[in-house]
Structure prediction request, 740 residues.
Amino acid sequence: LGIDLTTLGLNLNSADNLYKTFGSPWSNEPAKGDPDFQNPACYL
Amino acid sequence: DFGAVGDNLSGTSATAGHDHLYNLQMLEAAYHRLPQPKDSERARNYTPKHPSPTPASFPQVQAPIVTNPAFWERLGTDTLSTDMLFFAFYYQQNSYQQYLAAKELKKQSWRFHRKYNTWFQRHVEPQVTTDEYERGSYVYFDFHLADDGNGWVQRIKNDFTFEYNYLE
Amino acid sequence: HADSTAFQEQVAHLFSEWCQVCDHPSASDAAYSRYVMQLQHIGLLKGDEFTERFFRVLTELAVAHSLISEQIVAPGGLSQHSSHISYLPIDSYSKLVSMVLKYSSVEIGPNKGSLLSKILSVTVRVIQKDAEEKKTSFNPRPYFRLFINWLNDLTTSDVHHDGANFQVLTAFANAFHALQPLRIPGLSFAWLELVSHRSFMPRLLTCNLQKGWPLFHGLLVDLFKFMEPYLRNAELVEPVHLLYKGTMRVLLVLLHDFPEFLCDYHFSFCDVIPSSCIQMRNVILSAFPRSMRLPDPSTPNLKIDLLPEITKAPRIMSDFEGALRSKHMKADVDEYLKRPDGSSFLSDLKQKLLLPQNEASNAGTRYNVPLINSLVLYIGIQAVQQLQLNKANASAAAQQINHNQMDIFQIETATDFFRNLVTNLDTEGRYLLLNAIANQLRFPNNHTHYFSFIILYLFAEATVDNVQEQITRVLLERLIVNRPHPWGLLITFIELIKNPRYNFWNRSFIHIAPEIKMLFESVAKSCA
Prediction:
């Protein structure tokens, strides 16, 4: 009967893309560490 | 007879595929050598802009918590720590901390002005808003040169026009 | 000579020099570029066999050094495995490659990116050789680290560098295809984590206007092909179960972030996912374009036929005619659709759908499933196009096509085809045929509309109970698994149980046992 897919650690109702914090196919934990951030040039 | 996907072992060199049993044995072995979270964590060697020697008893590396977005979200709550967001923004340029501080400031309705390189926050609803700009009274965070000593201050600017093409 | 031990020692010496450059606290880009110029001056970056040998020896050194630290000698001299691996050698080597690509002049001009492809193909060969030699003691983690570093350093999500970035992503996609699990099963877990990594998958799927989609489609097919033999059984051994769950996570990210990608390639994924993996297939079939708003299937008196999207064809990026062509059947089908009378197409079709004996055991079925899938979709598409053509030619006030009034005669031949197969195939063949039809019940589009009509029509026209029972089973088994459930499947089942035309609740197999009756009632309640 498959799996309750809401138990795989992904917030399927998230308004934001899941891939930004997708840590690994083997864990429920969201990615830690530096996601792909870009500081606009005017910040520097 | 692979239908829509073609025979996916073609087009790449060398050894033919293995049989199911061999593949399963290799998979079992790989199961005991899964990539660990730290295998993909980037070495976060924070290089201070102006390295200066400090006593060995001082922490010599950044505390891991400053790279955790949740820490910055907590910081944004009370006014005192808003200054810490500004500190990270102006003193840790081009770092992940600056990115997180800016994100938190925006959540607090601060807006970065690209001409003055300063953060503004509406003090009251603007008197005028058009497609190009808004005008009203704003709080802004600035480094104040004064005879009673320099310092970072939050001041009010009345009748200021914030042109949207300067909005970051 | 590139094969001499002297060359190997020279490379080792150069590598330790590089590690010192990296280690130096004031290491700067100037130092890096000076070192790269030195390599260029020695002639190691021309792209010839020296270059290949140079990077091969470096890769082997970096991996060997990172693994040495894994063996720690415990008291009493017995070496024990610890999970601690020092990645310093790997990080230094990956940085060297990034600096070479950044500063060496060979990258300028038409052969840009070729050095990266060469280094990646060298790396693929090193991994292949290592895996073949070490077998169950092969350690994939240093190679995982190497690729993670490169993905972080060499790819970007900054749209201003789309062209160059796409070249780099393509080089990695080709490398991952060469490293696919069927080829290096010991790398499977590391491979899936790399392929789905946030520095690779979203970038390949978002850059250059979907040009990366065929590449990622190929990588997912590589994965499904590897898993297919192990997924046929309900009981999965733990490593396969972990790989399955990992795949489901990746599919959920795709369903949430890139549903159009799953929509466009659903056909080929259904070709390689075993029919027993119902939930995995449902995830793919539940995808719908983000711009679309799906009406709630249980809305009373929902007028499917009046939905604007129901007349539009879905985009099919898979080569769904591939299997037909490989069996040289496409012309026969076209001929049959044009001139059905007197055609022998239907009479010897069943034989053509069977696999040769020697392939049947390996495939786990007597039938050529991709061929059945291809035939069903191809004939359905011809029928829909014929319908739209006739409709366009009919009077301006052409009737809205709907389930009951859909003009059967206009699609007589196609319907004949389905009715004939349903009647003449055995249970297994019919199950696979009905599955191929049910795989088209997705979001509102004219395929969903047509195939929903066809499967209900076959139910209504069936002269024997077991066909109705099998149609019900094919729909029901897709509904009793955990969500998600495709929209087209829900509206078809609701139509079946609500429309008196099908006389569903009086069918004998509904009442065959109390728990079966309860099952139908609970599913009916949850759907409608």
In short: The first helix of chain B runs from residue 20 to 31. Helices of chain B lie at 20-31, 69-75, 79-91, 96-107.
